[in-house]
Amino acid sequence: MSGPTPVQIFHMEEKRKQYRSGSFFLKISLLALFLLVPFLFPSFKTVDLAMQIIIFGALVASFDILLGYTGILSFGHGMFFGLGAYCMAFLIGKYGMPSYSNLILGFVVAATASAVLALLISLLTLRVKAIFFSMITLAIAELAIVLTTKLSGLTGGEDGISFSTPGIFSVSYSMGEFMGIEITGKIITYYFILLSCLALFVAMLRFTHSPLGRILQAIRDNAQRAEALGNKTFVYQSISITFGCVVAALIGALYAMWMEYVNPESSLGVMTIMLDVLLMVIIGGMGTLYGGIIGAAFLKITQTFLPDLQSLAKHLFPQSELLHNILERWLLLFGILFILVVIFFPKGVIGSLQEYRIRKKKI
Amino acid sequence: MVEVQGVNETILKVEGVHTHIGQHHILQGVSFAAKADAVTVLLGRNGAGKSTTLKTVMGLLPASKGKITYMGKEIQKNKPFQIARMGIGFVPEHMGIFSELTVEENMRVAMLVEDDATARRLERVLDMFEALRKFWKSKAGNLSGGQKQMLAIGRAIVNDTSLLLIDEPSKGLAPIIVDAVIEAINQIKEHSVVVLVEQNFYMASSVGDDFFILDDGKVVQSGQVEELVRNEELQSRYLGISKVEESNG
Amino acid sequence: MAESIFRRWNQELTMAGAGVLFLLPLLAIQPKTYLTLTIAGLAMGMLLFLVASGVSIIFGLMDVLNFAHGALFAWGAYVGFSVFQLLMKWVEADSVLQNLAVFCIAMVAAMVAVGLLGIILERVVVRRVYGNHLFQILITFGATIVLVELIRVFWGPNDEVTTVPLTFSGNWDIMDVVISRYRVICILLGAIVYAVIQLILKKTKIGTIVRAGVEDRDMVQAMGHNIYLLFTGVFAVGAGLAALGGLAMSIFSLQVYPDMGGTYLLFAFIVVIIGGLGSVTGSLVGALIVGLSYNYVAYLVPWAAAGVNVLIMIIILLIRPTGLFQAGK
């Protein structure tokens, strides 16, 4: 039989339509926005904000591979992120020196270490119950923080490790001016990380659309189907989890490059990183990958402008001390928001939009 | 579909009930009625929806459509514990025995009130099933299959039960035990209405008065059990019973 | 293969293993110190049991994984702290009667307050996510954040120092062995609670219904019992137990701080994995194992103390994933 089959034609049409659809245009403009941030908003605060959104957006997407696509809640994602950061810190900082080869080695070590750890944990616990995975990742994540803090000889302890990035990425480097802005090492690092995160994001997208990705969604949605696959389900889940964790570690290594500093609380913390990731994925939308970016943007922007919000509120309601107390505890508000979203909008922003679109199409 | 019009009072009426389990549309409009002083049997192949029907009546599965009336009251929206308290007893397919509890404790969980009437009923149950008296203080998990079935039935009738729903009581039991169960049901039907789900035709024909055959989630045939016993064609069509197998009972 | 051996010689192996585990440190520690550590370990174990038993029963009956248990633990500690603040004179008095009285009042206050909190939590939040473990974890995690932040709102964000009632503090010196008084009290407390729980479960009708429900929830409903009321009740009791644990632990460690629930929640999870979800006896045994091993190892190899329990948990997962005891025991 020559020529494409009807199914193939259908797929090609779908692909072509995809490039013309509204959401694709949105994605491209978003990418363009991030590309232009250093030129449109040269202040360091804004560039840092954009970088945080990009990094956390990708991190949340990698978490979504576990949560939204595999249906497994891991409390260890912050740990893998921190693991990658520390690997990088060790290789170009504490135990090595800033060089391009060490930089690459940093990524390799981060990926390998996280892969081994993730596989170990998943194969060990998933064959029992999925909820054990959640409990154990919580335990191991806490353990990791305690060990990192206590074994300060090895890890720099609570004070963390400071280091500089090599060559063109280092802060002191300058490539001259372009369109009125000085191209420092920081800006080059920004683009490097942006493109890397983009590549990782594309990889994650392809993963979810791959045959393995589809099997996972089937397992997640239909427990009976999972039983029919027998013992194999936890193997598929382990592969998927490992993939998500490796991506998280790589992102962690990139984060280390940007911050040029790691320490247990900011890089590994359960109450810091993990909490943020959970909030972002719930608000943005589980199982949508893109939700991560929305969630990250929402949270990071709110956190940045929170002090301003607080003083505004104080200005408007100067008497109520309880109100002040409650606003000081912005985490309380986020916690309530989190619960409300889980109950009423479990699909988050993107998920609800997708559902709305599907419902509209049916009419 | 033959409508059952009897002189006897209709205790349970199921009308046009649909039940979904997840995405599967199991019951697609089941209608039948159980009369007083009769044993109604629900027959059908595996997967026809018999157990699902009983569970829906009991409220363990929600009916997506339709009406279930018991003694004149609509119960399709009630919760299982409310339905049980209205005097409906349930013996599930897997018997639902609490293995870690003793026989005595199993019965205690079953007894909703602890008064003289219940005590008398308990005595009756123990008279009917001597084994339960013997193993009163033993763990229910240690009982044999037949004894567990006795316990399951005993639990369901120790209260003031007007309607007893039993799901495949003969499953996995030796023929001699099946006879004991038949004997028990014959005694029970003097006090309560019984709706019995069965695949074992011998069992069904020994105790049943009216029958309804389910296939693919709908009632396809109904009538008197005596007629069904004589109608071999119906038996083989819906129950998968071939003439060779008939020497079962 | 390991599993089948384990199954046949279950009881014997567990006893032997436990025995080896707890006599082994005698090789490295002096007998007198060993005794002190053992008491400390048992006390810590008993307190962990209080927290873990709630998680275990709630999971066994309701199939709900309650990640908010740590926050309830912390709330119990803080309510107790406030009671002590109010009645500080009794706490500092050198009278067993007054100390006991204020301790009991604190216990009751903590258990009632947190029990109510538990009821609200169950009805408003947990009820919506029955049957879905993932959402249970998410929602109870969110509840934890809210509860902990509320502690910060009502009591302030700083660590506070707790006071041990005077007659409870100090040590007994019996033949050169130092035995802390409060630790013995904790052991007694835990033992009493265990006995009461077992009594209720085995001898009362409601306890029997709970045990039946752990085996087959639907059947209990079909037999005429309002399982939803039961759930709320069990959840509240679990919360009360956590509060008791929090109160006792805060006096044990001489401090309260908003995040204190987090660490102990972890311990509780390790305990229920080792002991078996749904088993009260399992929680007790698991908790004692965790408490004892933590104390022995903390003395011998300080930095490994946190890790040894994770290690035991991993070993249990490998050879007997459902835990040492079956649900319902």
Description:
The complex is a heterotrimer of chains A (363), B (249) and C (329). Chain A is mainly α and 363 residues long. Chain A contains 17 helices and 4 strands. Helix content of chain A is 78%, strand content 4%. Chain A has a two-stranded antiparallel ribbon with strand order 1-4. In chain A, strand 2 and strand 3 form a beta hairpin. Chain A starts with 5 loop residues before the first helix and ends with a helix. Chain B is of the alpha/beta class. In chain B, helix 3 runs parallel beside helix 6. With 329 residues, chain C is mainly α. Chain C has 14 helices and 4 strands. In chain C, helix 4 runs antiparallel to helix 6. The mean pLDDT of chain C is 85. Chains in contact: A-C, B-C.
Outline:
Chain A is mainly α and 363 residues long.
Structural key phrases:
heterotrimer; A: 363 residues; mainly alpha; two-stranded antiparallel sheet; 4 strands; 78% helix; B: 249 residues; alpha/beta; 6-stranded mixed sheet; 4-stranded antiparallel sheet; 10 helices; 36% helix; disordered C terminus
Number of helices of chain A: 17
Largest sheet of chain A: 2 strands, antiparallel
How many beta strands in the DSSP annotation of chain A? 4
Strand content of chain B: 25-35%
Global morphology of chain A: globular
Low-pLDDT ranges of chain B: 1-7, 243-249
Q: Tell me the radius of gyration of chain B.
A: 18 Å
Greatest interface (CB-CB under 8 A), with counts per chain: A-C, 42 and 37 residues
What's the CATH class label of chain B?
A: Alpha Beta
Main sheet of chain B: which strands, in order across?
A: 6-7-8-3-9-10
Number of helices of chain B: 10
Please give the share of residues in helix of chain B: 25-40%
Fold-level CATH name of chain B: Rossmann fold
> Radius of gyration of chain A in whole Å, from Cα?
22 Å
Percent of residues in β-strands of chain A: under 5%
Name the helicity range of chain A: over 70%
